[in-house]
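Bench notes, afternoon.
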Amino acid sequence: MNAYDSLTLASSPAKRWLVTGAAGFIGSHLVESLLRNGQQVIGIDNFSGGFQRNLDEVQRLVGPDRWQAFSFSLADIEDVEDCRRACDGVDIVLHQAALCSVPASIEDPLRTHSTNVGGFMNMLIAARDARVKRFVYATSSAVYGEQVSLPISEGASVLPGSPYAASKLINEIYAGMFTRVFGLDCIGLRYFNVFGSRQDPANAYAAVIPKWITQMIRSELVYIHGDGQNTRDFCLVEEIVQANLLAGTSTRLGAQNQVFNIAGGEATSLNELFQLVRAGLAAHFPYVLACEPLHDANRLGDIRHSVADISKAKRLLDYRPLDKLANGLTEAIAWYALQLGGRSG
């Protein structure tokens, strides 16, 4: 039994958690897990990237009794007073709210900076003033840029290749400063390529897995950027939940005020990913076996290869990847198949 398993069995004492971006893909999974574990949860979102339907699904899954422990407010992290109200009386912050698209950040760097950096500063100030015990925040593997040496450890050089990546690196710098100057206990989680249920496939900058699943179900053209040999480290959303709960509650010496890679620890090429997604979908929709990808140009800001060294998170947080990519895809595909439907046979 690892630390996450033990945490899920703990019944007391309940803490008061704030999840920013609570209606989003990752945020809604955090809310669900915390409520299942008998915690008090506050959620905020401005619905720029989150959806009421995600919260509705959480409410259905956790049941009415546990749902009573959840309080939601329509709020924007770019408004410092919204942040102050949200942090009042909170023990632990799980900060997920952000604009998370590399292409969108290249198109509109100022908006990304305003939300991801200005909003982050507002949250740090609000958490400091509310005397929050732990501030856990989402950062990104994008801070590394293109790396020659793989797997990538937290000690690798950083070379952001997009305004989004730069905004996340700035977050890490500010969090470190707030720890040193103000004593706010911060832990950063550098997410690699997260996937799972509730990930929005409709966004113009949708992540590759929900985008491909949707296109295959609908018999639309599927594109792979570049030659398909680009590699990524895909991470199931439940593993992100595990890392956040561990980071929020860890008392291990040396775990505080660090940044950690959170990933599956395996490299998968886009060509391999396509084969896995198509094979998984074929169990629900056999017609997708006829789908063949088309290749187009690499996207500006994309890196060639990425795979994480997760030994630090294993050592200091007791983090353990929960499943192999193929098994995680089976779970995600089943959810999308139910949501999107489609013709079969």
